[in-house]
Amino acid sequence: MSIYTEESVYLPEVVESGCIQVKRIDRVLKDGMVISTRNNRHVLAPGDDLTNEDPIVQAVAKAVWTDEVIANYKMALSTKQF
């Protein structure tokens, strides 16, 4: 009997603006061998709610999103620098 499992891998990338681009790779495995993958992407802006994010993404945001980074991002938005 075959055993099917699923797993997700998160690959966060921080860009110059302080935003975090998150790539999530969802995999379906049959007896430990990958039989299907699907890629998903989303972007988080400094100060966004991280409640539903993976712990890896939360840790990156906590390290990168200082008060200064969040303030600079909000200022750039208000002056339309992005």
How would you explain this protein's 3D organization?
This protein has one domain (4-78). Helices cover 27% and strands 41% of the residues. The protein has 2 helices and 3 strands, in the order βββαα. The protein has helices at residues 55-64, 67-78; strands at 4-14, 20-30, 33-44. A 3-stranded antiparallel β-sheet has the order 1-2-3. The chain is elongated, with a radius of gyration of 17 Å. The N and C termini lie far apart (54 Å).
Please estimate the helix content. 25-40%
Instruction: State the major sheet.
Output: 3 strands, antiparallel
* Mean pLDDT across all amino acids: 96
What order do the SSEs take from the amino end to the carboxyl end, as H and E? EEEHH
The spatial strand order of the largest sheet comes to 1-2-3
Distance between the termini: 54 Å
What would you call the structural class? alpha+beta
- What is the overall number of helices? 2
Report low-confidence residues grouped into runs of 5 or more.
none
Number of strands: 3
Q: What is the subunit arrangement here?
A: single chain
- Counting structural domains, the number is 1
What is the beta-strand fraction? 35-45%
The 3D shape can be described as elongated
Which value, in Å, is the CA radius of gyration? 17 Å
